[in-house]
Amino acid sequence: xxxxxPKYIYFWVFPQSFVVFPEYxxxxxxxxxxxxxxxxxxxxxGLLVQRALSECVSVILIMVCYLIANDMKIGIxxxxxxxxxxxxYLAFFTKFLVCFxxxxxxxxxxxxxxxxxxxxxxxxxxxxxxxxxxxxxxxxDLLTAYLAIELSSxxxxxxxxxxxxxxxxxxxxxxxxVTGAISSxxxxxxxxxxxxxxxxxxxxxxxxxxxxxxxxxxxxEAMVINNESENFACSITFFLQTLIQTDYEFFNFNFLExxxxxxxxxxxxxxxxxxxxxxxxxxxxxxxTSSTFFFTVITKLSIFVLLIRICYLCFFELxxxxxxxxxxxxxxxxxxxxxxxxxxxxxxxxxxxxxISHMGYSLIAFSAANCLGIQILFIYxxxxxxxxxxxxSIFLFTRLKYKNFDKYNKELxxxxxxxxxxxxLAFALALTMFSIAGIPPLVGFLAKMGVFLSIMDLVGNYDxxxxxxxxxxxxxxxxxxxxxxxxxxxxxxxxTFYYIRIIKVLYFExxxxxxxxxxxxxxxxxxxxxxxxxxxxxxxxxxVLYLLTTKVILSLELFNSDMLSVFYYYSSILYKY
Length: 577
Prior knowledge:
single chain; two-stranded antiparallel sheet
């Protein structure tokens, strides 16, 4: 009914501040739940309220997904809060995914919290973390992005250390806090360098500045007179005044490059990419399993959205710099993630190395700087999140039987009798491992093949300037993209070993002595059956993912017709496959 309302009534009823109405709804629900928890007697009703917490948060997130879906009718492509918040299709798509997968996450950990009798009200802070991830998808300047990162990080620190009886959990929280503080310092320092050089922190203004200026020699007076955008001229007032008051006609990009590099390194720390990955191994291993689940699965998408806004929608003209660091960081991450997990026996550490490797593949697709690379990046991240939900749900659904207490899987040897205790869960785990390894006929194969195709797409244009690019003489000219693709495939084969080793433990170990498991209820069975079925369905019919990600590419309005034609060609190949 909204679309039939006259335009003047529409903007009166739905002001631009309603662009963040889903975020308003989350804050109101958080305050309401917090008041209920304060008024309830902790000693009498604490466990009862805790058991209802996860289901309540799941329902809230499903309602938020509904509100985000209606943003297409209420306020798409709107700017608000002094142009600091943008609600374009990229934000709409990624916010919906974050809330949808977070709702599934809370459904999965509900029984875990009940069985462990965790009266941990700290899990309310997951709502704040999700709120920060949503604002990160909406951010349209560097300061808003920084505040969104900090809002989500505070929840992560407490989730890592809330298990106060465990020294490992407290240690993980401290390490996470120190690493996050260093990452935030890098981000602030890089943002200050960019603001000091350009006089603006808004993504659109910086993109217009780079698209309309030649920094080798910049005639300031001509730039002021010929510029037709008043907003653009106002946004770089500090930059122009600084220029006119100096005697320099040539620019030194060192501070601007340093600022961009510091921001990239800050986000690489958040993604646990090499060489900034060491903190993740200890934090993921020492944190409670439900918290590690959230760190490894839900948080990655929003950070990549910020990377896209900074590198593609802000500093696209400096692609020769950020692509250099992205390519080498991605290759090193695949190398460390593939070889580091070969001798691991602990499940959390093994999955931490797997996460490092997958983030490397995602970063390589990101560094392709073409339409296909961005599409494959989103497809890869969606499949990664879905596969992560499958793996961690199986680990949380299986409880080992002990004489005096229960515990969950921590090492590979704990999976020896899983096939005899519950053959369905063992088959689901094996299927998920094949998908993560990229073995057909599962959807993980399409994701990795797309990454290799996005790199091979650059081979034909290697000796020629790309459309929309000013230069292509980057620092890695001696490394062909064919070699990069072949090296990535080789590392992928190596990483397949430790995925297959889990299957070997499940099906081919001859030990007759092992640990038994509790049976799972109907709710758990339905949940992981739907997740496993989705892995097969998306391989048989990947058109849903390609359609949604194609709309994201077109909404960016960044690439020209030549690049879009190549994008449609490779997309048709993947879809027909």
